Amino acid sequence: MKLTIILEKGQDELWGRIENVPHYLPVTCGKTLNEVEKNLLELLDDYMQHEGKAYDEWRGLNLSEVTFNYVNDPDSVEI
After folding, report:
1. Cα gap 78→44, rounded to integer Å
2. Element (H, E) at 28
3. Do residues 16 and 27 lie in contact, with contact meaning Cβ atoms separated by under 8 Å?
4. How far apart are the first and last CA of the chain?
């Protein structure tokens, strides 16, 4: 499964979110893209063990099958 991480750059960190997860909006931050991805994978793992079981596309999915592409949030404003 390929998911899109939407990135925003904060003052000293990156924020990432995934919007196409049913009834769940995983959001995290990190100093690096690697850290954001790792944190999102942990959130997705928890989701798959609980709420995600109700959805066929998430039931039985292995985290090793999840890949990401990245886009910048076009609505983010840096102040």
Report:
1. 28
2. strand 27-30
3. yes
4. 35
Task: Write out the chain's pLDDT in tens, 79 residues.
Answer: 999 999 999 889 999 999 989 989 999 999 999 999 999 999 999 999 999 999 998 888 899 999 999 999 877 755 4
CA angle 29, 18, 72 (to 5 degrees): 70
pTM, two decimals, is 0.88
Is 36 in contact with 70 (CB distance < 8 Å)? no
Domains and CATH numbers, the chain: 2-72 (3.30.160.620)
Strand-strand pairing, 2-9 and 27-30: unpaired
